[in-house]
Amino acid sequence: MNINNTNFRKVIESFAPIPDNEFRRLIVVMHEKHMHKGEALLREGQVCREFYFIVKGYVRGFSLQDGKEINVKFYFEDEFACDFESFRYETPSKFYIVAMEDSIVYYGVKSEVNPVLESNTSFYSFVFRFFQIQYFNETEHSNNFKLMSPEERYRMLMEQKPHYLQRIPLTYLASYLGISRETLTRIRKKVS
To answer: What is the torsional sign of CA 101, 60, 86, 129?
Structure first.
């Protein structure tokens, strides 16, 4: 597969530089997939054996609790999407990952990608730094839920991730913020 998106390499090298020959080894085992809105990359109960790089569009990660969707993560262009816990430990996923728009993703299958990632110290550096950033982001997100009011969380999204407000439907955004759609509507009116 000829993956020609230079953003893929830029994103990887934002974590660690990768020599050309090693990067080519990774590209050889990556695949491209065109997805329709609503198409699932992962379903609850499946073992996650692929990770995705979003080229175009976006996907959401959510779980079902008592039949209600709880949105936990949105992945936009130039981001990696995966249930990393399921991927690492080969346990059933607790999440769905579904395309929110017609999307294009590059994906790597664990059995094909792991030998490449494990073969070079540059990839070790990439993986270490990637998961370090993931950890910090998840910790910050968790702390925001514990320490900030819904309005403060919304204002933070306005400042740090305005594309969320532009592209994510209100129902999903409210769930992500841990509030009802009605509360989100009141907050939006108040801060605008």
So the answer is: positive
Residue 119 neighbours by CB distance under 10 Å: 13
Closest-CA residue to 104 (of 36, 163, 38): 36
Q: Give pTM, 2 decimals.
A: 0.91
Enumerate long-range contacts of 16-23, CB under 8 Å, 24 or more apart: 16/122, 16/123, 16/125, 16/126, 16/129, 17/122, 18/120, 18/122, 18/123, 18/126, 19/120, 19/122, 22/116, 22/119, 22/120, 22/122, 22/123
Check whether 182 has a pLDDT greater than 90: yes
CA–CA gap between residue 2 and residue 62 (Å, rounded): 31
pLDDT tens sequence across 46-94: 999 999 999 999 999 999 999 899 999 999 999 999 999 999 999 999 9
Do residues 2 and 106 touch, judged by C-beta distance below 8 A?
no
- pLDDT tens digits, residue range 127-170? 999 999 999 999 998 998 899 999 999 999 999 999 999 999 99
- Per DSSP, which regions of 15-58 are E strands? 30-35, 40-42, 50-56
